[in-house]
Amino acid sequence: MRMKKGNLAIETPAKETGAIKRRKGSKKLYVDFYYFGHRITRSTELDDTPANERKVRAFLNRITERIENGTFKFAEAFPGSSDQEKAYFTQKEGREYRPEPHQVLFGDYAKEWMLTIYPTFGSPTKRNDYKEALESRILPHFKNFTFYQLTSMELFKFTESLVRQKGKDKGKPLSTARKVNLLIPFRAIWNDACDHYRWVLKSPFDNLKKKLPKTEKKEHTVIRLHDWLKFLDNLEDHYRPIAEMMILTGMIPSELGGLKREDIEGDYINVRSSYVLGEEKKSLKTAFRKRQIFITQAIRERLQIILDRSSSPYVFIMEDGKRFNSSRFSKLWQKAVLTAGIPYVTSYSARHSFAAWSLIIGVNPLRLVNLMGHASKQMVYEVYGNYVEGLEDDAEEMLDYFGRDFVLPRKKKSPVPFRDSTGDSLGSSVLTTGTI
């Protein structure tokens, strides 16, 4: 430093602050000083030599001078520090911490995102899908990438490397639809990071979908009646009436899990809620999915069996008495399909079969819209209409299976409570006796 005395400039040694440390077992030099009351100890990555010690001392002296004149920036002096530290000291310095994209690792930001943003998602299905995609696919590959390195080319190479990790198709490339779904949480984190740090960056996700090969949309197979009956013969006894309720009503497993005894009112089943991944959801997939299903004689017979065997407040239960579990049921379903030797169908195929069979036996499409819980007739035709061909031969047997009271429209809802096979009124006994 230079000081003036009269007309003379006198050189004075710079004020020294902090200390240079040496740690046992390390050949590197460390700086040690206090900043805003916090002790800062950092490795210089310089070997312990006299020349390097002079460099470190000069570095500490510059820190002291900048701290005193208010120009010291912790984040610039120690770029390897955590984002939390940089943000804290930047705030203390009276500035806003805005690291550049090349200074932030995707893995570090994703970890913070999982603690702050991820828990705000209300859907358990969404949380589960995001977590699985991040932990099994995205983070193992990208955790050490900076946001600056996340280019469309890197994302494309990543998607090209994705293959099935288990099952009979292990090692085969994932479908384009599956790749796009895996990128959804990736894109969410990217967008939140850009918003948080106010980066103006070209998104690597733009036009990526166009680069991916197109794959045919996988359609759910409609079950032929003779295959359905063969499937039921190979399904465990406890689950046969449950599977039949699915194909007789168009309900899906999550809706079965959410159905309570109190939802059966008069001659109608009220689909009001669902049960997904161990969590009850008061809302369904769409507002239209909240619907009423008339209890036909065929439905009545299966429902009677189901409710007679348990006093649970939930209509559908597993054989061990626990609440209906769609994942466990799906495995039992797959086992029965393989044992029966029929074309592969999933449990969701029952819903598609319900729609296709209904159209074949003459159910009014507008009525089917309500039964399925869709918004329009167009949806019914687009999703299920192309499945009708080839099923005409089963029409008469389908009608017998559903019952003519399913096809004939009712003029109004019956005010008479649903009665059991003896003709006794249910009244309020549903919840207290466990029977219909």
Give a description of the structure.
- This is Integrase.
- Belongs to the 'phage' integrase family.
- Residues 211-400 form the Tyr recombinase domain.
- The protein is mostly helical and 436 residues long.
- The chain folds into three domains: 2-97, no CATH class; 106-211, Tyrosine recombinase, N-terminal domain (DNA polymerase, domain 1); 225-433, hpI Integrase, Chain A.
- The chain is built from 19 helices and ten strands.
- The chain has helices at 50-69, 74-77, 83-92, 106-116, 124-142, 152-160, 176-197, 208-211, 225-234, 240-249, 253-258, 297-308, 326-340, 349-360, 365-372, 377-384, 395-402, 404-407, 429-433; strands at 2-5, 8-11, 19-22, 28-35, 38-47, 264-265, 268-271, 274-276, 279-281, 291-294.
- The protein is elongated and about 95 Å long.
- The protein starts with a strand and ends with a helix.
